[in-house]
Design goal:
It is built from two helices and five strands. With 161 residues, the protein is an alpha+beta fold. The protein has one domain. The protein has a five-stranded antiparallel beta sheet. Strand 4 and strand 5 form a beta hairpin. The chain starts with 5 loop residues before the first helix and ends with a strand. The mean pLDDT is 85.
């Protein structure tokens, strides 16, 4: 097998370096985005379910009652399967929300109402690096007898913890 001349080796090295300088950051961006897709998509599903619930159910109480953090313990650095029945709480069922596959975040739904006015906050907590410090994502919405809306924006604290 013929050996490479120093110039050919330098060209091959420069080409490989160029490919890595483009590929590695793109891979890292994709990995980062995939980790954040779960809480963003999950909260979107919850908020959409809450607005749908408000439009088809009780005008005096626009949103379903609060649901506890599910699963109760935030997975630490891994995607975890839920115990059977973890998403059977009536509120999760009313919102059409749950997982049937391993996931890395725990979700919570809090709602309140008074005199036909309602408010909800949906929260996702995750510990992607397993250090015991969680990241938090939140969306909110409000509603009354005329309808419900998702309040624009999302609160994010320590997104990659």
């Amino acid at each position: 097998m013929p050996s490479l001349s120093p110039i050919e080796a330098a060209v091959a090295f420069a080409l490989a370096g160029s490919l890595l300088s483009v590929g590695v950051p793109e891979f890292a961006r994709g990995l980062h985005a995939s980790r954040l897709a779960e809480p963003i998509d999950g909260l979107k599903r919850i908020a959409t379910g809450a607005v749908t619930y408000a439009s088809t159910n009780h005008p005096e109480e626009p949103f379903p009652p609060s649901a506890p953090l599910t699963p109760a313990e935030v997975p630490r650095g891994v995607r975890a399967d839920d115990p059977i029945g973890a998403w059977d709480h009536p509120t999760w069922r009313a919102l059409g929300f749950g997982f049937d596959y391993a996931h890395a975040f725990s979700f919570q739904f809090e709602s309140s109402s008074s005199a036909g006015q309602g408010h909800f906050r949906a929260t996702a907590h995750g510990d992607l690096d397993g250090d015991g410090v969680t990241s938090t994502f939140e969306v909110e919405g409000k509603g009354d007898a005329t309808g419900a809306v998702i309040i624009p924006g999302m609160y994010v604290d320590r997104e990659v913890e």
